[in-house]
Amino acid sequence: MMDRTQKLLSIRPLIASAKIMPEMSDDERFQNQTLRPIIKLQNDLLLASFKNYIKKMKNTFYELKLEKRMEYITKAIQKDVKLRNSLKGMIIGQLTVDEYEIYIQNSSALNKRMMNMVIKRLEDQIQYFDKYELV
Prior knowledge:
By secondary structure, the chain is mostly helical. The chain is built from eight helices and no strands.
């Protein structure tokens, strides 16, 4: 029977473009080796979560033009502590115990990287939210 670590690692997608180079900083290595695959794995959940956030905020997102929608995503994640903590939890919960030990050594910087990656992922898929516009 596989343990938790093996199970978590086995379901993560491989990202060919996530290169690991010897000259990388520890944070960059952790980002490419761990955070990127987890965020990709959690993509559907991150989208659903942000869609729910839009709904909770009275759908004002849908009244905005594209550029302002991009800003909305960034500001929401940077300023709404509950949203940010929820998104972080979706990612941190997918860490192995060893990865968690690495994460807690520099959680502040890694949280910043993590949220920037989530913002970029949501912005890159902004058309996803269009199909949920008020009907």
